[in-house]
Amino acid sequence: MQFRIRPLPFDGVDLFTLTRDELPSAVCPVSGRWVVSGYSAVRSVLADPVTYLPDNALTAVTPVRPAALRSLVRARFSLPPTLANNSSSSHTGLRRLVASFLTPARVAAMEPRIVSLALERLDGVDLVSDLAWDLPCIVLLELLGLSSVDVPALKAWSAASLEFFWGDVSPSRQLELAGPVGEFHQWLVSRYHARDGALFEALADFGVSAEDAAGLCYFLLIAGQETTTQLLSVAFDRALRDRSLWARLGSPGVAEEFVEDVLRTAPPVVTWRRVTSRPVVLDGVSLPAGAELVLLLAGAFDSNGRHMAFGYGRHYCLGAGLARLEAAVVLRTVASKLPDLELASLEPPPMLQLLSFRAPLSVPVRCPMSQFDGERPRVG
Ligand code: HEM
Q1: What is the rounded CA–CA span in Å between residue 43 and residue 49?
Q2: What is the pLDDT of residues 136-154, one digit of tens each?
Q3: 158 Cβ contact list (under 8 Å, min separation 6)
Q4: Which residues touch 332 (CB under 8 Å, ≥6 apart)?
């Protein structure tokens, strides 16, 4: 695809609803940031972590106002550079430590557990709140060796965190969200001090400070499950709109292929950020040092179907294999057990609408009354 370069600020686009179709060029100034779109431009940014630093990856999109900041300071909240936002040399060791919990063998061994969790959740009426919501969280906690966790509390903290860091939030909403953000952090610090769980033990043994461990786990426990909840939500909503696809999803390989297509065209992580360390020319556009880039991952794929949904290069997503497995196994399990399942409404679903995360908040479903007399069978 050819891009027209428009050097003037392009302000007709809302960053929070941004799609590639609206952008006139591969590198486009929008409201004080630079939006980068298309496979080759996005890939060239991610492939050069020295020029394009990840330091702003977890910076709040809406600047934190004094009242919310005071609340975070009271909770001693901090997000030091650890994984996604770390351009320093400490990244390699921390990445290796986390990767040891997510090896292909450990992930593959979770398949039967994922199937049984999906089967236990088949009688819900909403595929988001009754199935996609907690399943990835339970799987992640088991992989990281964290037991006795209050899953609803963790989900509430992580939803608040997503909105706090990636939302277009009013001052009062920001202050409200700062409470659960701080609580989440304090919970992580106390688990670290108690060495409560394999992940915290490993971090302590590796000599990671309480502050760094809490920052790392804060990101990992959000990124490692909210995104998969969102992927499942997008995938269910899309698959149930296509009866012939739903009928085929139980066959070998179909769910995997479909998940890959969702990742290419409607990934849950729609954008990711970088900041330039020096003046640089990207796709013919001169960027100053310190330029904030918003990379449009959604729709960034090439003619071979390779995509950027999990990023690229040094910070490539450590959970890509797990997310792919969970999504394909859950879709296959549900489609095989409930071939007649249908959407309760064909209206577009309410969406989570944050700078980096977009997915249906709800996918209400029903089974035809004739088949089950209004009762969904309990399977499992
Ligand atoms: C559909 C689900 C997911 C999507 C779309 C996704 C997407 C991403 C993206 C775009 C990045 C940034 C990559 C870059 O900067 O080049 C990332 C990083 C990361 N993701 Fe995921 N992710 C998903 C699931 C997961 C899961 C399940 C885990 C853990 C179990 C996870 C852990 C991480 C970690 C630790 C990083 C930081 C890696 C680093 O900086 O070295 N993600 N992910």
Answers
A1: 11
A2: 999 999 999 999 999 999 9
A3: 184, 221, 222, 225, 226
A4: 249, 250, 254, 255
Domain boundaries, the chain: 39-83+90-372
Q: What three-state secondary structure class fits 59?
A: coil
CA angle 319, 184, 130 (to 5 degrees): 60
The set of protein residues with a Cβ atom below 6 angstroms from ligand 1 is 46, 54, 83-84, 95, 98, 102, 140, 220, 223-224, 227-228, 231, 267-269, 272, 297, 309-313, 315-319, 322-323
- CATH topology assigned to domain 39-83+90-372: Cytochrome p450 (1.10.630)
CA distances from 151 to 167, 296, 352 (A): 23, 31, 20
260 burial level (CB within 10 Å; 0-12, 13-18, 19+): middle
The 3-state DSSP class for residue 274 equals strand
Tokens 């035809």 belong to residue: 368
For the segment 291-300, what is each residue's pLDDT rounded down to a tens digit? 999 999 999 9
